[in-house]
Fold this protein.
Amino acid sequence: MSRVMASRTRLRPLWGMTPGLDISLLWRQHLLLMNFTEHVRIPAIILAALVGTALRAESQSSDTHPPLNLTYPPAHRDATVDTYFGVKVPAPYQWMEDLDSPAVKEWVEQENDLTFSCLDKIPIRGWIKERLTRLWNYARESTPDQVEGGRIFFSKNSGLQNQSVVYVQNSPEAAARELLDPNALSPNGSIALLGYEPSPHGVYLAYNLSQGGSDWLTIHVRDVATGKDLPDTIRWVKFSGVAWTEDGKGFFYSRYPAPPPGKAISEQVIHQKLYYHRLGTEQSSDTLIYQRPDLPEWIVGGSVSEDGRYLFIYLENGTAPQNELFYVDLGDPQHPSVSNAVRPLYTKNDAQYSVVGHEGGTLFIQTTLDAPKGRIVAASFEEPAPAHWRVLVPEGEGVIQGAAMAGGRILVDYEVIAKSRLSLFSTNGNSEGRIALPTLGSVAGISARNDSQTVYYGFTSFLYPASVYRRNLQDGQTSVFFEPRLDFDPSPYEVKQVFYPSKDGTMIPMFLVARKHLERDGNNPTILYGYGGFDITITPGFNPMLPVWLESGGVYAVANLRGGGTYGEEWHQAGMLGNKQNVFDDFAWAAKYLIAQKFTSSRRLGIQGYSNGGLLIGASITQHPELFGAAYAGAGVLDMLRYQRFSGGALWAPEYGASNNEKAFHWLYAYSPLANLKKGTCYPPTIITTADHDDRVVPSHSYKFTAALQHDQGCDNPVIIRVETKTSHGYMPTDKRIAQTADVLAFEAYNLGVNEPPEAHRAGAPR
């Protein structure tokens, strides 16, 4: 397994460049699950007519809950106006971009007070938090990392620990030993462990710490035998991991210049450089490996081949789906020459190029060149041009999400309409069959090595948390390495995948999770989740929130919108840049399908999205406020005209476009949630969350949108914001994650008419 440092394009993990996903969706499992595919083709014009009739009927129906009667804290509106290509755009809340100003801090404090006083009035909130806590309290383990010699590293959480603990085993059969407990560093979780990488033979563990989950990392090194840290400390690392050299004496990493004092959250990050750190030396003496001062906003990262012979360098324009690829021949892996020349492989920035591995002078490359869903080719260092390629794994039905060398074979992780499939191929391209997966679901984390016949992989679905499996490639036997147990019976529920027409007739896939034999009377409280961007597919994954919602009689829907990666790069491009409106249409028509098919009604339909999905929610309620009964926008990108000015926002310009380009300005202005609120409109009940130290999607997005939405709200529907501290965009300790998840679910449940616990969970009910 290549020791991936940072930017293996499209391979999990996402390593922090994109605005982000709800990471609670990433836990995986294995048990059988009732599922089937239902193809329903309703013409979009008929769908719209059916929904229009339903909405008119609903407008005459009574409320599903008592009003909360809120009085919002005052938020000053000034006369600031920005001008873009002759268009004047009022920006009365731009002062909220100064995150350290006393006025902003006072407003946030008052808003939090209002929010929690509002949440305190919701009768079902206590039960939701209690049930969610019990469901969260189950042991879970990560897919283990294998190193040479058979030693494995993995993380484990006993249930309610704020962070998972890192363990090491000298062999798969040996007893596990605790190596690093981040809970001992900060019992409240304010110091976050955000990744680790063992050295080739497992002598050392490089691990990343962050204050409050910030994207800014500090790398430390621990001696595995003694459990003591070395003095090595590497600072100002962001969007990077660690790639060790084979001798175990040092590693490659990427970092930025230190930001000005007090500006670490909001300062735009530019000029990332690739370095090599040798253990026992000061960071100031690290060797500069590669930089591109002509491309200040681009990302540079690298990985080391499994045998330690080559360093591969990836250069990417932010979150763009293409990259350039270079390499360094390090020579003798036990005495690597890290200062050897950087040589080009693919420099046209015309596709994805990701090294799967190599055998001698033959490279195995995953690429989207002339294959939007991906293919794997054999190339050579001497003649790497595509004209000399040999296709090993052609483009097929599924989208290739990743590939790894495994026991002299190539293991390919496909997604087929958002469902995982694992297949094996020889290095000559011959198919060696599939690794059977338990059911409809998602592979999460693959650990494989070319010198090992053992493969570990995680698997999950909506109704089952992550199990870890071990596959012996020699005899083809699969065994359970880890299986969780929790207080939930999934048998009454099922998962379906349906297809519905969007506004332009494009068929969009959507997962539905609900009780079997659900009565379609239009009265089921329903949550619709979406993301729609950055070539990211929302695949089946367990979230402890789901059982709570299902037990409450709810339906859960996940729409795989354009802009994601469900059908490959063409699907992604159909929802990016000037095509972004397709994403919002796909989501609105998902809602219309659910209403027309009588799964729910608008007053019973809640929507959720996080980060780029928060943008989706903001655009949805500004474009179709009448369609939803409640909305949740988590850490959303809500001011599309200024996002690129802060932190890593400029990295998303290849996805969105930026307002300093006239053509891009006009499409951004047309849908930017902040710019499209209208005074006097009745917007649905809305809860917004952010973290005051989110340095990926800075909290000023949420602040400005909340203030504007509260000002413009034309009815009694509540608009509240919940601002967390000592957390960040993708990180939250367990206790705070449970509390926030419970609050969001309680708010939506209450506004969708769920006012009391299910009968089986009421006080005195038999259990």
Observations:
- Residues 1-16, 21-50, 59-63 have pLDDT under 50 and may be disordered.
- Residues 102-119 form the longest helix (18 residues).
- DSSP finds twelve helices and 41 strands in the chain.
- Residues 3-16+139-482 form a domain with the Methylamine Dehydrogenase; Chain H fold (CATH 2.130.10.120).
